[in-house]
Design brief:
Blueprint: E1 4-5, E2 12-23, E3 31-40, E4 45-49, H1 62-73, H2 78-85, H3 89-101, H4 103-117, H5 129-147, H6 154-161
Antiparallel strand pairs: 1-2, 2-3, 3-4
């Protein structure tokens, strides 16, 4: 296992087995994938090592979620989006509600990433939940400019910088070191 640090105490994680998890990708039946776990000797906790195309506790891959969120931000309704993606409308509704309810914390956290990559101010043309996606696009563009070609797609980037917690049910900021 490559060197991976514990998100809690920054100690080194060691291999600790894993578990099977279901993942639904674009217009394909759900598949099972193996999720590795790491164990931290310092804080004595285990951590799931999610691949960048997954968000914590979400069945669908990042590109599916991202597509639905972009359509919702553009003003499309949840039912037509869900129908187009062949998903339950309640799933799409839950994603959009999560972004709306955590909008200010998500914007602040994504802007913190953007300004850590480039200290220039970020001008947002929208507000509310749509501002989350606009701030994310800005942070992703800055990461691409600074890091070059190895930068993942926008949705995998969001999963990586949030530790997979961008759409999780929580009250603390989703990005490590965020406001």
């Amino acid at each position: 296992m490559p060197r991976v640090v514990c998100p809690g105490c920054r100690g080194q994680l060691r291999g600790w087995g894993g578990y099977w998890r279901w993942v639904r990708c674009e217009r394909q039946p759900a598949q099972r994938i193996w999720i590795r776990r790491g164990w931290c000797a310092r804080c004595r906790r285990t951590q799931a090592l999610l691949p960048s195309f997954l968000f914590a506790r979400r069945l669908d891959a990042d590109t599916v979620i991202g597509s639905a969120l972009e359509q919702a931000a553009a003003g499309n309704g949840g039912r037509p989006i869900a129908q187009g993606l062949e998903l339950p409308h309640t799933t799409v509704r839950d994603w959009w509600r999560r972004v709306k309810s955590n909008g200010s914390a998500l914007v602040a956290s994504v802007l913190a990433v953007a300004t850590s990559l480039d200290p220039a101010p970020v001008d947002l043309g929208t507000d509310g939940a749509a501002a989350v996606l606009e701030a994310l696009a800005s942070a992703w563009q800055r990461a691409r400019q600074r890091l070059g070609t190895p930068t993942p797609d926008q949705w995998a980037f969001w999963s990586l910088v949030s530790g997979g917690l961008a759409l999780a049910a929580h009250t603390s900021p989703p990005l490590p070191g965020g406001p």
